[in-house]
């Protein structure tokens, strides 16, 4: 197992680990994003089993003990399994997450108390980097779900949204909606709910320039259109599920 390092937007690096045993023969990637700044942030702490590989990879960008913020989409092992390992190696690091995630899981599970983020709250990382937290409950899954938007580069760290199987380049301009729809059919990983389309269209209104996918290549292109297309697909799924008798 190794982590490939790629810069997907100015000052934002992707640490990508491919696992061949998931969804063979395509395989599956787990991506972790580093936002550089005076207070570097890691989005996705990663599985505990990946921690040695990720720590070594982060060391190519910053001394791991300088990590200041740890955030992620929701409480699951691939998103935050290794958060306490990071807290142990980085003495100034804090976990940052939304109110629900902190109340339901992190106030107990994190070895140091997390910083609670309100919907829309910004963390200033220094050097012009600011990340905004956006609540997206149950989307694509998890009551505590949320995303981060890095304002300087226009990068939406969108977690499990647009999940796709297989490997690929760090950054693509090719379609990511079709592969996401196919992967939804394969895994059924999303919690279909009536608020999906509305919440995802709210992300489109941010008009990001890059989408940083946890499972798949990052996308540079018309991100608002991709988000609206994904929202339409989820709306159709919700309608179809309600029409089944
Ligand atoms: Fe997840
Ligand atoms: Fe994930």
UniProtKB/TrEMBL annotation:
Domain ODP as annotated: residue spans: 32-166
One Pfam family per UniProt: ODP
InterPro entries documented for this protein: ODP_dom, RibonucZ/Hydroxyglut_hydro
Protein name, UniProt field: MBL fold metallo-hydrolase
């Amino acid at each position: 197992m190794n982590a490939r390092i790629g810069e997907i937007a100015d000052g934002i690096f992707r640490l990508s680990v491919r696992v061949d045993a998931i969804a063979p023969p395509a395989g599956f990637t787990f991506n972790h994003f580093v936002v550089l700044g005076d207070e570097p942030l890691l989005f996705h702490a990663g599985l505990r089993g990946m921690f040695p590989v990720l720590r070594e990879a982060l060391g190519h960008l910053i001394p791991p003990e300088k990590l200041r913020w740890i955030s992620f989409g929701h409480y699951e092992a691939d998103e935050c399994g290794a958060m306490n390992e990071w807290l142990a190696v980085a003495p100034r690091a804090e976990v940052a997450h939304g109110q629900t995630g902190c109340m339901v899981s992190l106030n107990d599970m994190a070895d140091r108390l997390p910083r609670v983020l309100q919907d829309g709250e910004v963390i200033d990382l220094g050097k012009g980097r600011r990340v905004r937290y956006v609540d997206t409950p149950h989307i694509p899954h998890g009551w505590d779900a949320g995303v981060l938007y890095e304002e300087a580069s226009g990068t939406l760290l969108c977690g499990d949204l647009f999940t796709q199987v297989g490997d690929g380049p760090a950054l693509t301009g090719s379609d990511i909606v079709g592969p996401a729809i196919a992967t939804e059919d394969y895994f059924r990983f999303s919690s279909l709910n009536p608020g999906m389309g509305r919440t995802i269209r709210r992300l489109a209104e941010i008009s990001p320039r890059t989408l940083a996918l946890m499972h798949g290549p990052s996308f540079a292109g018309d991100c608002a259109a991709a988000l609206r297309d994904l929202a339409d697909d989820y709306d159709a799924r919700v309608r179809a599920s309600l029409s089944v008798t």
